[in-house]
Amino acid sequence: MKKILPILFCFPLFTYSQAKPGYYTVNATASNKVYFYTTPDTSTKRKAYFNKPDWVFIQKIKNDFGYTCFINSNEKTSVGWLLMQYLTKDTAVVRAKVGENIFGNFKQRNNAINAYSVQTKIQKGDRDDPNGTPNEYTVFFSDSAIQPIIIGCCEAYLVNEGDLDNDGMDELSVFQSPENGCTYNMITYSYKNGNWKTIVPLFLIPTACETFDAAYIQKQVFKLADGIYYYDYANDGLKPIKTKVR
Question: How many helices (DSSP H) and strands (DSSP E) are in the chain?
Answer without folding.
Answer: 2, 20
